[in-house]
Amino acid sequence: MGILMFTARVHDLIYQRSNVEYRLTKLTKKLRDLQQYAATIASGGISIGEMLNTPGSMMGRTMNYLSFAHNSSLQYMQQNAPYMQQMYMQQMQGQQQNAQQQQQYQAFIMRKLYEQGRDRAMQIETRNLKVEEERITQEKEKLEALGKSIEAELQAAKEGRDKGIKDMAPKYTFA
Questions:
Q1: Using CB atoms within 10 A as the burial measure, which of 14, 41, 112, 174 is most buried?
Q2: Residue among 44, 37, 41 nearest 59 (CA)
Q3: Taking the CA of residue 52 as centre, how many other CA atoms within 13 Å lie in the half-sphere pointing to its CB?
Q4: Under a CB-based contact definition with an 8 Å cutoff, are residues 70 and 45 in contact?
Q5: φ and ψ of 96, to 5 deg
Q6: pLDDT by residue (tens digit) across 155-174?
Q7: CA-to-CA distance for 59 and 87, rounded, in angstroms?
């Protein structure tokens, strides 16, 4: 009876080990994709070529980030543009400027505010990526520890099964 119990336990542990290895493989791929995406985001602007080189598993997140970054940049620009324009007008009081110079400076202000908004969006996404990377790393470490404990229990179950087989074997002695 002991052999059957140990054999069933060995089979169950092999299944558990396989399941843990599968989950570890998926987590490792997810972590690698996340790190590649984080490197793309950290470069600042995302070009079409960089977006096409993004792992497929991160394409949705990349599209969401681009949308978020654009919308938050526009909002940041629109919120801060009146203050910047007011400061510009105060500084330029009494100085003669033509309409073209004023328009160029207005465009410069808008572009810089948009870039600042993009930087803020990038910082937010970078923080979110760091948190997710830490979570995946912790989960991976837990699975690795579980895999080691399963492996140790599997060795013990195999030894118990082998000992049971050895004990059941007939013992012939020559007198």
A1: 41
A2: 37
A3: 3
A4: no
A5: -85, 125
A6: 999 998 888 888 887 777 77
A7: 41
Joined tokens for residue 76: 């940041």
Q: How many other CB atoms sit within 10 Å of the CB of residue 48?
A: 7
Claim: this prediction has a pTM higher than 0.90: no
Q: Residue 23 has which token pair? A: 């989950």
Those residues whose C-beta lies under 8 Å from the C-beta of residue 8, and which sit 6 or more positions away, are: none
What is the rounded distance in angstroms from the CA atom of residue 158 to the CA atom of residue 7? 8
Q: Record the tokens describing residue 160, joined without a space.
A: 């118990």
Do 91 and 105 contact (CB within 8 A), yes or no? Answer: no
Name the residue among 67, 41, 69, 45 with its Cα closest to residue 55: 41
C-alpha 156/C-alpha 28 separation (Å) is: 28
CA separation for the pair 6, 156 (Å, rounded): 9
Q: CA 39 to CA 99: how far, in whole Å?
A: 42
